[in-house]
Write a structure and sequence with these properties.
The complex is a heterodimer of chains A (411) and B (369).
Chain A lengths: L1 H19 L12 E11 L4 E8 L1 H6 L13 E8 L2 H6 L8 E3 L5 E5 H6 L2 H9 L8 E5 L3 H6 L8 H15 L8 H9 L4 E10 L18 E11 L2 E6 L1 H10 L6 E8 L5 E20 L2 E17 L8 H29 L6 H8 L1 H7 L3 H6 L3 E11 L7 H10 L1
Parallel strand pairs in A: 1-4, 1-5, 5-6, 12-13
Antiparallel strand pairs in A: 1-2, 2-3, 7-8, 8-9, 10-11, 11-12
Helix pairs in contact in A: 9-10, 11-12
Chain B lengths: L7 H28 L3 H23 L7 H9 L1 H33 L6 H17 L2 H25 L17 H15 L5 H4 L9 H33 L4 H7 L2 E2 L3 E2 L2 H30 L5 H19 L3 H33 L1 H10 L2
Antiparallel strand pairs in B: 1-2
Helix pairs in contact in B: 1-2, 1-6, 1-7, 1-9, 1-11, 2-7, 2-9, 3-4, 4-5, 4-11, 4-12, 4-13, 5-11, 5-12, 6-11, 7-13, 9-10, 11-12
The chains are: A alpha/beta (411), B mainly alpha (369).
Keywords (chain A): Germination, Lipoprotein, Membrane, Palmitate, Signal
InterPro entries (chain A): GerAC_N, Spore_GerAC-like, Spore_GerAC-like_C, Spore_GerAC_C_sf
Protein name (chain A): Ger(X)C family spore germination protein
Amino acid sequence: MKSTIRSAMMAVVLLSLCIMTTGCWNRIELNELAITSATGVDWDGHNWVMSYQVLIPSAISAGIGTSGSGTPQSPVIVYSTKGKSIREAMMHSFSESPRKLFYAHNRVVIISEEVARRGFNELLDVYFRNSGPRETVSMLVTPGTARRVLEQFMQLQIIPGEGMKDIILSEARNSSILPNIPVYQMGMNLTGDAKSGVLPEIYISGKEDTSTLDSFTHTTIPSKLKLGRLAIMHNDRMIGWMNRRQSLGVSFLRGEVKQTTIVTPCTDEQGHRGFDTFVIQHSSTRLKPKLTGGKLSYTAKVDASGVLTESDCAQNLYKPDITKKMESKVAQQIQQILKGAWKQGQQMGADVFGAAEKAHRKYPKAWKQWSKDWNSVFAETPLEVQAQFRITRMGLSNKSFQYLTEKDKKG
Amino acid sequence: MMKPEISTLQTVAIVINAITPTAVLSVPSATIGFASNDGWISVLIAAAAGVIIAIAMAAICRGNPGLLFVEWIESRLGKTAGILIGFLFGVYYFNAFCMIVRQFANFIADMVLDETPIVMLIIVMVAVSAFSIAHGIEAIARSAALVLLMVIIVIPISIGLNFDDINLKRLLPFFDAGAARIGLATISPILWMSEVSILFIVQPYMKYPKSVMRASVIGSVGSSVQLLVVTVMSVSIFGAEVVRMMSYPLFNTVGIVEVGEFLERIEIFTVSVWGMTMYVKMAVFLFGSVHCFTHALRLKSSTHVLFGISMLAIVTTIVTWPRNTELGQFVIVDSVPFLTLFNLIIPACIAIGLLVTRGKGAEKEAQTP
């Protein structure tokens, strides 16, 4: 009897404990959160201006432009706050937003060129210090204000922040001109031996803004978000831009080319000039430092292979010497691209190629001396490029269309 | 009542879980902080030292004819020495327990529950540890073995997911930091490895006490492998510089995993498994404390001791470190003499005492029918 009472009492105690152990201490419901898909960082000369692209879940679930009975609603809203520090600016969002900003789904952080040139150590600190924002967020630079980039709608993607991340990932995968740089990568580059890094540019192509849903009533939109050049950073500050060709050279030298397109000029027997287009499907670069007579130099060995995707010259691609000629032209082109990027890097005083790490690893003793003023050592270091290209496939046709038409004319 | 018995594998699990959970948090930062990209060399040296310590500890334990730790010391070194050593070890395990609880609570507050009062986290952690101890060493041993199995599953998965980000060339050049800095960086891992001294408490409960040597060495090597994996992964993924500013590099490495758009933020799985190892560690140390106090002070009810110590631990953990950073300093710097004293100096004294009184032990054993 006694034990029955005891068991019953224990059961009551345990059941009452359930009320206390619901796992909800400071719970936050989903409808109390403002999910941020992109963040913009501007500088007004005295204060940080943080802009947030916040999702409106009801509008997204309804689908963009599907108005039903009411007017179409924007899937995102953009607003900004100011502060002496980044987190202070973020805190001011509580004064104007009914929901708490939630950064776990933030996909990109856009910094204005002004912020990039001023330096953005504070931003990296925020990302590494707080658990909410992710270090995997992609960083981009824009020549205007970051807020304006956040205000633009995108084609095909309902959430612009998500779309911007997709563009940069697709660019890095399919053309390899610009890399995707997550925040942690930026931190690694700026603290590395060369203290230099790169960031892709995003800009608004077109004069008007695509910031209203009305733009989507036409088949063309007034402006688009586009990726452009490569911003070069040194010691946490932006020091200049590299054009897209030089940027591709950087990707080659860093061994980050996954797939890219190379166009080479060609001339056929009739003197007709045109272009051959190759898609490089595999590429690896070995950048090796060499010390001869106390002088440092580098050799970049590029081993690439790819497919001919377009030919504009009347050539018989069955002939091995023509194929070889094409291959050597691509190799020459790669050589020029690499040399151009190296030269630009030297002129700008930023080793964004990972050359410092290579020198440090191979010549640790000499590095102690070089590290004191790596930039001047780097500025005088020559680069020798040995490029090899192999055409793995000619595509589905072995003769160019031009070749057939030329032959018909002759016949 | 039958004396609880734990298998050799379970002992290995206890040793590993008594060393690594807190070590994987502080060792990468401490070793890389001193020795930069050579941090892994320091861990390797510490691993060798750890094996020597493990052999020494097991050798001492093998002198135990099957008595509980305090009883054994009393029988060999006299009552006063037994009580004193038992009491000191009780204090050591208590302090270590408080430190572990606070480390875990800080981590949970930093990473997951940043708005929950730390008092609540500490109360829950101590309560869970006390609950498992109330079920005896066997319950802890079984949990330790299960948790170890999960760790063994999680490590290769983590390496696999991070495979693309790992660049072993970041470990180069070797010996760049210089012998002095590499040597300095070995102190922290060696001290963590010396926590193998938990075998003093655990060995009497072993089913096959003779296999204590195997359990000790395997446990020590297993712990070193985990520390080595974490250190190498941290440097080869992030490079030495960025790791210096990370409080929890282990979780940063898993945090950057993104497989397409469907697999990201998976560090929560690693955190969960690591959290389990932390609970085992807390339970083992609280058990050590309760065990030593109960036997040294000849208390009749270990349940009451457990309750009292748990309450005291909650208060100590909250009050000792008002700021999280103070704990960081304590773990890396202040704990050095503390761990050295209890895991190296006192065991060495015990060994000397046992050697001196060897005749007495043999005599007693001969008397035992």
